[in-house]
Amino acid sequence: MRERSVSTALTINNVLPTKLDPSSLRYESNMRALADLVAQIRNEEEKIREGGGSKAIESQHAKKRLTARERINLLADPGSFFELGLYAAYNMYEEWGGAPAAGVVTGLARIHSRLVMLIVNDATVKAGAFFPMTAKKVIRAQNIALENRIPTIYLVDSAGVFLPLQEDVFPKILGKTQESSWVT
Predict the structure, then answer these.
(1) 37 phi, psi to nearest 5 deg
(2) Scanning 18, 19, 23, 135, which has its CA 20 to 30 A from the CA of 63?
(3) Percent of the chain beyond pLDDT 90?
(4) SS3 readout for 64-129
């Protein structure tokens, strides 16, 4: 294969001109505002990644169980996990205590260098129970894996369907309604 020449260095001919003044008050103000927004998003993500919270994590550890994210960290090649759908069910189900990340961690990872889709129930969120958005998130991860011929690994620790919302969990899969003949 032919190697690229070193002539790709920046020259005066290939640099776009700018009117941006990094020393202006407006620039500094905008940068501070952007940094605050990024910090806010990172804090929200950290809170979502806590799942059911510190008490639920302690409860899992007291039962000699690992959390979903701890299992992923042990299974996946270091630094290879790319989470999908972190904000699924964000600010939903508040009347039931919420369902951070829809109660399931999904994402792409490498295991012994092989790309896989991971679908891992988070038992810190209502004992890993399925909410309507949990089912949608799992189906979306499965479809991504199928469409891209990626093997899927499920790490299941689930209480089953969240009973107060059970009728909403699988009503419209494959374009069918709950009254369809495939549901008995």
Answers:
(1) -65, -45
(2) 135
(3) 58
(4) CCCCHHHHHHHHCCCCCCEEECCCCCCCCCHHHCCCHHHHEEEEEEEECCEEEEEEEECCCCHHHC
Q: Evaluate whether residue 31 is within a structural domain.
A: no
Are 38 and 130 in contact by the 8 Å Cβ rule? The answer is no
85-119, pLDDT tens digit by residue?
999 988 888 888 888 998 999 999 999 999 999 99
Which residues of the chain fall short of a pLDDT of 70? 1-12, 160, 162-184
In a domain, 35, yes or no: no
Question: In this structure, how many other beta carbons lie within 10 angstroms of the beta carbon of residue 130?
Answer: 24
Instruction: Provide the residue range defining the domain that includes 169.
Output: 49-175
Domain assignment of residue 149, yes or no: yes
